[in-house]
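On clarity, I found the account of how folds are encoded harder to follow than it need be. For illustration, here is how one protein appears when written out as sequence plus C-alpha cells:

:::
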Amino acid sequence: MKYFITIMLLMAISMGLGAVNLQLSGGLDFAGESGSMVEDVFGYYIENNMATTISLQAQNNFQNVLYGLGVDYQVKRQHVALPEGMHYDLKSSSFIPVYGVLGYQFLADGILKPEMFAQLGYSFTDFTYDMYYPEDRLSAKAGLYCGVGMGVQIQNIIIQGLYRVNNYKFTSDEWNGSSYDNETYDGRTRQFNISIGYRLEGLFKNH
C-alpha cells in the first residue's frame, strides 16, 4: 500500500509541475555490491546476486533538456555467501528510491535520440537478516540516492544504462550478556543497471 501511495503522490506532483511524458521501464542490476567503510580505508563490500528493477518516471522537457520525478522498486536481491568461517548478517536488500531526474537529449528532432541524465533523491530500505547471534538486533534507515547514466530513445522505446548508489544508515545492537552495545555506521549498495522501457509522450499535454 505504501508503494502505491508513493506512486500516486509522484504522479500528482508531476502533473502539478506540468509533466507531459510518462516512462515505464524494467531492467536488470549487474555487478551489485553492498557494504560500508568501517572495516578499513578501502571499505568492505559483499557481492549481490543479479536482480530486477521497475522504474516509473513523469517527465517534462524544455527544448533538449529533460526533467521530472521518478520512483524505482529495486526487487529484493540476495547477498552472495561468504567463504567458510565468515558470516554476514544482512541476508537480502531492497530499495525504493524517489528522486528528481535531469537530462539532456541530443538530436531531439531525430528518430534516434541519444541522452545523458542524472538522478538525485532519497532511497527507502527493506532488508532481511540472517542473524548469527539471534539475540543481536539490526536495522537500517533510508538515505541519499544518486545515479548517472546514458541512453538512447528510438521512437517511443528507451534503452538506458545507469550507475547508481543507495546510501543508508545501519544500526547494530549487539548483546554483551547484560545490555546492548549500539553501533551505527554508513552503508551503501552500488550497482550497474541496464533497462528498456516505453516513453509515452504528450500524455498530460493541453491541446
The beta strands are 21-36, 44-47, 51-62, 65-78, 90-105, 112-129, 137-154, 157-175, 180-201. The first helix runs from residue 2 to 16. The first strand starts at residue 21 and ends at 36.
